[in-house]
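Many groups now describe folds with learned vocabularies. In that spirit, our science desk offers one protein's residues alongside their backbone shape tokens.
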Amino acid sequence: MPASRPRILVTTRLFDEASTRFLEAQGFEVVPSGLPGDALDTNIPDADLNALLDGAAGWIVGQRAVTREVLAAHPQLKVIARRGVGYDRVDVAAARDLSRVVTIAAGANDPAVADHTLALVLAVLRRLKANAAAIARGDWRVVSGADLTGKTVGLIGFGRIGRQVARRLSGFDVTVLVTSRTPDPEAAGVTFVPLDELIARSDVVSLHAPLVPETRHVINAATLKAMKSGAVVVNTSRGGLIDDEALFTALEQGEIAGAGLDVFEAEADPDRQAVAEALAAREDVVATAHAAGSSHEALARGNLISAQCVVAALAGTPFPPGCLIADGRVK
């Protein structure tokens, strides 16, 4: 009998046929999660996930936590490929300890997130939510907003997405300030400043930093009080970068003018769901459900990059640039 093909479990939502065919053409068997195509893999019960992982050599994962316990229970699982760029839900230390490979889909959603960032900035400044709500209730009076042109925009973080946001802002005749752990003196069109200066000077503060202990709640009660009263905050990075309760209080008290939020603390902490819903309900907040990176094009890119990462780890082909996060095979 012919040898069975290595099994690749795919639990991320909206995994397309083209990426499935790519894996199959490389000699792998693709095992779907059994969830509806647009459902998050956080909805898979633990027992069902363990059954799906039995015998799997690779796992293309979406939002599901990849814990030491899961990895230890499945020693045949060699590669965990995140269809995304954040990996805070993956126990990378455990993966290294247990000789596994962890990858991300670097670059897949950068253009989509940068586009979405600008969409939120403009929507909040021009009060599109308030205008749409007024018309929906039959009130056609104009709700005036503010220009982006001529403003100062502060970017906290200057990685791949932050740089693309800065490039898009170049068409708006704005001043771009950047706070980054690694300032780039070669970067054109931006000025690197300390965080407190960025907070005080910016009309728009946009977050593009990873969520690490040093950046958790970088936007908090104190930084919100230090902002201009007309400032807006935009977050398309990670929910924990903002203290959501402090943001709600600042908006309630008129300390800032609005917020555009694609991520919330509630994604990682269900106890914060009430404040997330309260923020999303506000007329001065434009909210989306972690959708910034979910354009059709970005999802397709992420699917294929994740599939290429699995093949690289299991067949020895080169990893796509910037995708290898941990290689526990190398001690």
